Amino acid sequence: MTTPVTHSLDTAGARIKGWWLAASTRQSDRAWVPPAWVAVASVLVAAAIHASVAWGSIGPIFGPDEIGTMGNGRVIADSGQNWSLIGNGYMPGVGLMLAPVWALTDDPFVVYQVALALGVATAVLSIWPLSNVARWAGASASGAVVIAAVISLAPARTIPSNYVMSENLLILVTASAVALAIRVLRSPTLLNAALFGLVAGAAPLAHGRGATVALACGLWCVWWLWRRAAVGLVAGIIATSVSAASYLLYRWITARLYYGDDRVADVLSGSESRTWEDVIASLAGVSWYAVAAWPAVAALGVLLLARRLRHDPIAWLVTGITTLAIVLTLTQMQRSPSEGPFTRLDTWFYGRYAEQAFVLLAVIGAAALVRVRWAALSAAVVLITAAVSIVFLVLTVPRMPVGGYFIDIHVPGVSHYLSLDTIIAGESEPWALICGATVLVALLVVIASWVRSAGILVLALYWGALSLANDATRIDPRDDYYRETAALGEASAYLPADVTVGADITYAEGTNFYVFWNTPRRLTLIAVGEGLPHPDVVLTTIGNPVPAQAGAKLLPEGDYAGLGYWIYPGDLQDSLSEAGLLVDAPTPAG
């Protein structure tokens, strides 16, 4: 006889079995085909948000990256006297775009504004190849455009539009290479192979990190040698030739632009200061960055790639791009000192170096988000996010310095979680709370995805609002201080046009700002204090005793970052003194 208890157990077991079957059974895929006007509107919204982010930027704040990128274009244009910069060089892809602008004007601020506009344009243009990747992942034609546009709203994509850097161009080239690979796979003609090789080879031209993209594409060409030798040979030869030409152009430019360039030698230098424990902790940190910056969709992208690796060569290409990008990140990141003024927090979850791969994962995952209805997959996404967050808390967070600083452009996808006030107070970030928020956002996106297109709508609203708010309340107020100081630090108006300024090489990349502000006046690099000939105007620290001992006076309007213009005795000093523009050297403290 069946007892009530036995009956209850049987009923509970049947329910559990039913739940398990429902969760493990994949339902029919959803066909999401938004109207064409929605696709057009999404692109326009993306363009507007990127333009809004870039709008307040009036001048560079990163001496190596931004000014170096602009200097490449100046050398290519050969517009009068070239700059003399300190630091390592940058690949000249953006410089090629800026060369025609330098040929038309010597005003660095005009060129800077044009460069920002080009950055926004490349960010918006990348929607096209990313939509092709989304279609490969199963999205409809109009849905793919919406997906790619929504991905471009994420802070990881909008923050770079604040600056003149190569991030947007690298993502455009990377996405285009994958889109053309899809085209080659579907139509393996020699023309398609040549186009693929051209774009893949141009990845290092866009950015040095593009070398990993070119390498992954090169390995993919080797695979083609066994399938269709002519396609693999054409693509491989063209890609290799373009990459080699890009490197030669880079070396030619840096020889004319920089006092010394150690970029190539420094590529693997970060690994020298790190232990295997550091590398594993950083891998956990970069993985957390991916799931936090790209909630739900990055994990979904990984799962879809894993499923397609058995039969789809494109999945192998994207996996190669991602793997090599992460390897490069781990080898280049130096261990930050645990204390002192240069303590870095962001090196432990540095997402910038692998962002071109994470964007691909996000697009692929978003395409699955709007299409696939499978409870087990949804649960796996949340569990992966939670597991990665826990590993990050256990392995990475204990090794990170308390009070270490971060720069938004290095971790653009998660910088909104971080607080400068916490750094100033010497306190630790609330990492458990941040990781909890990471899991919660992923959970909300997954839940919303079961209601038609609500998942992608939630991401669009979340990322769009976050990008605008983060830029208006955090990034712009902080950046504007340095940008305005740069504008006020412009002292060229007080110096005759034919005066050459000698910049003290001791103070490294800080002098790059003065090179920018003084354009078209030429700055020459000199060694102050070695008794060598120098111009009447010397740029060095305001506390340097050498100029003061020689009778030089300061032009205070040029003070920036502890540096200032020293005017040595002569006619120029006399005229500026009579105008009341100079001050005596500051008296040393004590």
Can you walk through the features of this model?
The chain crosses the membrane at residues 36-63, 83-102, 109-130, 136-156, 168-186, 206-226, 233-253, 286-306, 313-333, 353-370, 377-397, 431-451. Keywords: Membrane, Transmembrane, Transmembrane helix. The structure is a single chain. The chain has helices spanning 4-24, 36-55, 65-77, 93-104, 108-125, 127-136, 141-151, 155-158, 167-186, 190-206, 210-227, 229-257, 276-293, 297-308, 313-332, 355-371, 375-396, 420-424, 431-448, 454-488, 511-518, 545-549, 571-578; strands at residues 501-504, 523-526, 537-541, 553-560, 563-567. By secondary structure, it is mainly α. The chain folds into two domains: 40-267 and 285-481, no CATH class; 497-578, D-Maltodextrin-Binding Protein, domain 2 (3-Layer(aba) Sandwich), CATH 3.40.190. It has a five-stranded mixed sheet. Helix 2 (36-55) runs parallel beside helix 20, helix 10 runs parallel beside helix 12 and helix 17 (375-396) runs antiparallel to helix 19. It is globular. It starts with a helix and ends in a 12-residue tail after the last helix.
Which features would summarize this protein structure in a list?
590 residues, mainly alpha, D-Maltodextrin-Binding Protein, domain 2, five-stranded mixed sheet, 23 helices
Count of folded domains: 2
Strand order of the largest sheet: 2-1-3-5-4
Q: How far apart are the termini?
A: 99 Å
- Estimate the mean pLDDT confidence: 87
SS content category: mainly alpha
Could you spell the SSE succession in H and E letters? Answer: HHHHHHHHHHHHHHHHHHHHEHEEHEEH
- Sequence stretches where pLDDT stays below 50 over 5 or more residues: 336-342
DSSP summary, beta strand count: 5
Shape: globular
Keywords: Membrane, Transmembrane, Transmembrane helix
